[in-house]
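Subject: design request, 84 residues
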Protein backbone atom coordinates (compact mmCIF):
# COMPACT_ATOMS: atom_id res chain seq x y z
CA UNK A 1 0.00 0.00 0.00
CA UNK A 2 1.48 3.35 -1.03
CA UNK A 3 1.56 6.30 1.32
CA UNK A 4 0.38 9.53 -0.30
CA UNK A 5 2.96 11.53 1.66
CA UNK A 6 5.55 13.07 -0.67
CA UNK A 7 9.00 11.56 -0.26
CA UNK A 8 11.65 14.20 -0.78
CA UNK A 9 15.24 12.98 -0.68
CA UNK A 10 18.07 15.48 -0.42
CA UNK A 11 21.43 14.28 -1.67
CA UNK A 12 24.62 16.27 -1.26
CA UNK A 13 28.26 15.35 -0.89
CA UNK A 14 30.97 16.69 1.39
CA UNK A 15 33.50 13.90 2.14
CA UNK A 16 33.83 10.90 4.44
CA UNK A 17 31.12 8.73 6.00
CA UNK A 18 27.76 8.04 4.28
CA UNK A 19 24.60 8.61 6.33
CA UNK A 20 21.04 8.16 5.09
CA UNK A 21 18.09 8.91 7.31
CA UNK A 22 15.22 11.15 8.34
CA UNK A 23 15.82 14.64 9.74
CA UNK A 24 14.29 14.73 13.23
CA UNK A 25 15.47 18.18 14.31
CA UNK A 26 17.37 21.18 13.01
CA UNK A 27 19.36 23.59 15.19
CA UNK A 28 20.22 26.88 13.53
CA UNK A 29 23.31 28.54 15.01
CA UNK A 30 24.96 31.80 13.96
CA UNK A 31 27.66 30.07 11.92
CA UNK A 32 26.25 26.57 11.33
CA UNK A 33 23.20 24.40 10.87
CA UNK A 34 23.11 21.13 12.82
CA UNK A 35 20.85 18.37 11.51
CA UNK A 36 19.87 15.52 13.83
CA UNK A 37 19.34 12.51 11.58
CA UNK A 38 17.75 9.22 12.62
CA UNK A 39 19.22 6.25 10.76
CA UNK A 40 19.46 2.52 11.48
CA UNK A 41 22.20 3.08 14.11
CA UNK A 42 20.27 5.67 16.10
CA UNK A 43 20.53 9.43 15.99
CA UNK A 44 23.46 11.17 14.34
CA UNK A 45 24.23 14.88 14.11
CA UNK A 46 25.66 16.45 10.98
CA UNK A 47 27.00 20.01 10.99
CA UNK A 48 26.94 22.32 7.98
CA UNK A 49 28.98 25.53 8.17
CA UNK A 50 27.04 28.50 6.77
CA UNK A 51 30.10 30.13 5.19
CA UNK A 52 29.79 27.99 2.03
CA UNK A 53 31.09 29.55 -1.15
CA UNK A 54 28.76 27.59 -3.46
CA UNK A 55 25.35 29.34 -3.41
CA UNK A 56 23.55 26.40 -5.09
CA UNK A 57 24.68 23.98 -2.37
CA UNK A 58 24.01 26.54 0.37
CA UNK A 59 20.44 27.16 -0.87
CA UNK A 60 19.82 23.43 -1.19
CA UNK A 61 21.00 22.64 2.33
CA UNK A 62 19.13 25.57 3.87
CA UNK A 63 15.89 24.29 2.25
CA UNK A 64 16.02 20.98 4.18
CA UNK A 65 13.14 20.59 6.64
CA UNK A 66 12.29 18.24 9.52
CA UNK A 67 10.94 14.87 8.24
CA UNK A 68 12.89 15.12 4.95
CA UNK A 69 15.09 12.14 4.13
CA UNK A 70 18.70 13.01 3.39
CA UNK A 71 21.83 11.22 2.32
CA UNK A 72 25.02 12.89 3.47
CA UNK A 73 28.55 11.90 2.59
CA UNK A 74 30.59 13.82 5.10
CA UNK A 75 31.89 14.28 8.56
CA UNK A 76 29.34 13.23 11.17
CA UNK A 77 29.44 12.63 14.89
CA UNK A 78 27.14 10.55 17.06
CA UNK A 79 24.74 12.27 19.40
CA UNK A 80 25.22 11.37 23.06
CA UNK A 81 21.48 11.60 23.79
CA UNK A 82 20.00 8.35 25.02
CA UNK A 83 16.56 7.25 23.84
CA UNK A 84 14.81 5.81 26.93
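Subject: RE: design request

Done. Sequence follows.
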Amino acid sequence: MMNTEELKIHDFQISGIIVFGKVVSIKELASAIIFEICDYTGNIEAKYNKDAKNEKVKNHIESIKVNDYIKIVGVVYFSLKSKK
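The beta strands are 9-13, 17-28, 32-39, 42-49, 69-74, 76-78.
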